[in-house]
Amino acid sequence: MAAPAPRDVRDGGEERLLRFTTAGLTVDLEVTSMDGLVDLAGQVSPCPEEGTRVEVRTPHLTEARELSATGQFAVTGLPPGWFSVVCHRPGQVPVVTSWTRIRP
Predict the structure, then answer these.
(1) pTM of the model
(2) Which residues of the chain register pLDDT less than 50?
(3) Dihedral sign for Cα atoms in the order 60, 64, 38, 34
(4) Do the bridges between strand 16-22 and strand 72-78 make them parallel or antiparallel, or are there none, so unpaired?
(5) Beta-strand pair 100-103/81-88
(6) What is the structure's pLDDT at 2?
(7) Closest Cα to residue 87, out of 20, 5, 13, 17?
């Protein structure tokens, strides 16, 4: 499991940056909030192999994305509240971040 991020992230009209780390993998997230919804832009490093995908989970939905060749992904229009990211790499155990709360 990746190291925990800050407990609460509040939107002050600017982006928030979060980093989750584990042995051999880092997930960086830029969190923005607009019109009551949350957008996440992320990067997994080191750059994972082809076929790596992430799932951004909330208590009510899961959005899956394939990573770009540079390890980037984005999910937009999420409800504020709790979320977690799962990174699935071919042939390896998934890496799961802690649940983190984003307040509008």
Answers:
(1) 0.81
(2) 3-12
(3) negative
(4) unpaired
(5) antiparallel
(6) 53
(7) 20
User: Six-digit token pair at 22?
Assistant: 């584990």
The helix (H) or strand (E) run that includes residue 100 is strand 100-103
Token pair 């990746």 in the structure block, residue: 2
**How high is the pLDDT of residue 5?**
44
Q: Rounded distance, CA 59 to CA 99, Å?
A: 10
Look at the block and give the residue holding tokens 């996440």: 40
Residue that is written with structure tokens 């998934």 in the block: 94
Sort strands 8-10 and 100-103 into parallel, antiparallel or unpaired.
parallel
Q: What distance, in Å, lies between the first and last C-alpha atoms of the chain? A: 26
Q: Residue 44 CB: number of other CB atoms within 10 A?
A: 24
